[in-house]
Specification:
Number of strands: 5
Oligomer: single chain
Order of helices and strands: HHEHEHEHEEH
Largest sheet: 5 strands, mixed
Number of domains: 2
Strand order of the largest sheet: 3-2-1-4-5
Distance between the termini: 54 Å
Shape: elongated
């Protein structure tokens, strides 16, 4: 190969590298909730499984770990002890876990009677599924975990079962 061909190959390689860097940055940001979706989350009139309203305004200013789940979803149920453990670990650091049950109130109540957790669980129902999609879960699958920092910005999301180490690291980076 002559010098000109090497220069062309080098330039094409450099352009491909830059395109990869910029597209991966863009792809990593597309799965996060937008500001309007987060505002809708805080404005939603949430209820706990016994039918009482819960004031989500009290969640503002905290690091929120929002977990969309269902009692019929095995990976959701498997990760709940980890979520409960980390809620207790980070409670004094202004971190609050919130579970949004994509299920009927009676199924959620029954599940929580057998498997209590130390963080609030609210009823999402079908509307909760739509909200999860607005918050970056384009496939609508469960479980889906989103971290919102104390400034009200989505900083992390994970579709599927999350590991303890992965979640701990994500929380620490959001604090």
């Amino acid at each position: 190969m002559n010098r000109r061909q090497w220069i062309i190959i080098t330039l094409i390689s450099l352009l491909a590298l830059l395109a990869g860097v910029f597209s991966s940055h863009w792809i990593s940001k597309t799965g996060l909730a937008s500001d309007p979706a987060i505002k809708a989350f805080f404005a939603n009139p949430w209820q706990i499984p016994d039918g009482k309203s819960i004031k989500s305004e009290e969640w503002q200013g905290k690091v929120l770990v929002v977990n969309f789940w269902a009692s019929w979803c095995p990976p959701c149920v498997e990760e709940m002890p980890t979520l409960d453990l980390l809620q207790k670990e980070f409670l004094q650091q202004n971190v609050l876990f919130v579970g949004i049950g994509i299920d009927s109130p009676s199924n959620i109540r029954e599940f929580l009677n057998m498997t209590p957790v130390s963080y609030p669980i609210v009823i999402g129902g079908l509307e909760g599924s739509n909200l999860s999609k607005q918050m970056g879960n384009t496939s609508g699958a469960l479980p889906y975990t989103l971290i919102i920092n104390s400034k009200g910005q989505a900083v992390y999301s994970k579709l599927g079962k999350i590991s303890e180490d992965e979640l701990r690291k994500a929380i620490k980076s959001a604090i």
